[in-house]
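User: Structure please.
Assistant: Input sequence and predicted structure:
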Amino acid sequence: MSRARSFFLVGFVFSLSFSLAAQQTATSSPQALTLLQKSLAALTGGQSITDVTLSGTARHIAGSDDESGSATLKANAGAGRMDLSLSSGPRSEVENFSGTPPAGSWSGPDSVSHAMAFHNLLNEPAWFFPAFAIARRLSASGSTTPAASYIVSYVGQETRDGQTVHHISVSQTAPFPDSPGAPTFAHLTQVDFFLDSATLLPAAITFNIHPDNNALLDLPVEIRFSDYRVVSPSGVVAGLQTGAVSSPQIPFHIQKFLNNTLLLDFQAQTVTPNSGLTASTFGAL
């Protein structure tokens, strides 16, 4: 790790620990918070979910490489891991926001681990499981500590991919002054949620990643969710239900787009909530 990056991370951790005196200058929209709370209730069915494992098939497209294989996605409220088994070999990535500081890494068919740039760890580690993405922001949005506070804004109702959705934007307040010429902390942490207007289940989330050496250049990421199924807390697919849903609703079809191009197309075959994933699951590759 370079000396400059070491100093930056030390400063970041110091600011996170001693930011109680910082002043929060923006407030969240009550309408947006209510919609996110209702969306979370629809996703969880009022059940407690501490972790989840999704296993299934995947298509991975990177330039001229178009491969299919199997995939396993694992997450808890502060971390996510993806493992792909493709014809060219394995591919893995892990992001852990619960550590201090956040950490992440990825590896390709050569199994060599590469650290993720710090500015790419500030959006959403559990990007494939919207219940955790929403829960993490709701648990922090009312905090009196600006370092842990999110500002939730209602953008409006709009049509996205032929679907009427509520657009909600969430960003994190900076625990330290933004540096001149650098992207704002709010921008680096911004995640937008698009909730189906009828069910309030997330149809998509979007955020930006950036080249390792240029946090100012945005590369848009979009995650699309579909094929929601009701799953019991034990992992048994309960099928469609009418009326109030008292079991989690989990998207079995997840697509990830990078720069408006399909990167990953995942179809779950089995979903296992609350299997007791440990911290070692989300350690560095």
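The helical segments are 3-17, 30-44, 130-141, 185-189.
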